[in-house]
């Protein structure tokens, strides 16, 4: 079986529910519409599902005017793309930048999340550079954690689920890929092959594989209920532990020579252009 793009996913609001797409445009900072919105607290600090689990239950959809967000027990919220002149300071990990404030969402979010919250829109993704440790000086990223795209593979999930099922003696349900919130999922490659990739072509786009993805508590939350558990971190700690972290998936940076978006589609061919010898594990920080 040749390597193919098995599925494409985007997440309109950081930490909220994603959507599967038949195709998506790859922009220099990620898939079009991916994580251009984010929820922050009253000080502009990013709120994520790590600490605010109900964010996972928000169901956002991109509309012609902006965004529609649904949540259990609440009326849907329609939000227009805010005026880019309404900038407020925001902070996401080590990134400090500004984003446009959609004030009409504040009260609704506060009710749904049970805490003060504001919705912001990244009108200009060129404001946020990718970590210089792993990327080129002109690389940019949306409100994703650190890199424009995340790739996972179906074979790696199957290998992980084998361990989960053995550890639980068959009592644990197989984990869905939605736990890991990838943008692109590749079929037809061996388990953990993505660890070794350094350059890969998906459809008509070349990507640099720049860093493995260390996994956090969000993967232990059921995307449908936001309830927590021990998996997959417990099993990853058995088979995928390096440098005090557990790893699943690889971060990608697109190389678009003229900066223009290029569309990728489910079923596109995947070609590994450059790889290292297997066995070293994911690309990790140099200690």
What descriptive keywords fit this protein?
4-stranded antiparallel β-sheet; single chain; 10% helix; 9-stranded mixed β-sheet; 2 domains; 287 residues; M1 Pyruvate Kinase, Domain 3; mainly beta
Structure notes:
The chain is mainly beta and 287 residues long. It folds into two domains: 4-30 and 131-275, PK beta-barrel domain-like (M1 Pyruvate Kinase, Domain 3, Beta Barrel); 35-127, no CATH class. 10% of the residues lie in helices and 34% in strands. Strands 1, 2, 12, 13, 14, 15, 16, 17 and 19 form a nine-stranded mixed sheet that branches. A four-stranded antiparallel sheet has the order 5-11-10-9. A three-stranded antiparallel sheet has the order 4-3-18, with no helix packed on it. The protein starts with a strand and ends in a 12-residue tail after the last strand. 41% of the residues are buried. The model has no long low-confidence stretch (mean pLDDT 96).
Care to give the gist of this entry?
This protein has 287 residues and is mainly beta.
How are the SSEs ordered, and which strands pair?
Blueprint: E1 4-10, E2 19-21, E3 23-27, E4 30-31, E5 37-40, E6 59-62, E7 66-70, E8 77-80, E9 87-92, E10 95-101, H1 106-113, E11 118-121, E12 149-153, H2 154-167, E13 184-187, E14 197-202, E15 205-214, H3 233-239, E16 241-242, E17 245-255, E18 262-265, E19 270-275
Parallel strand pairs: 12-13
Antiparallel strand pairs: 1-2, 1-13, 3-4, 3-18, 5-11, 6-7, 7-8, 9-10, 10-11, 12-17, 14-15, 14-19, 15-17, 16-17
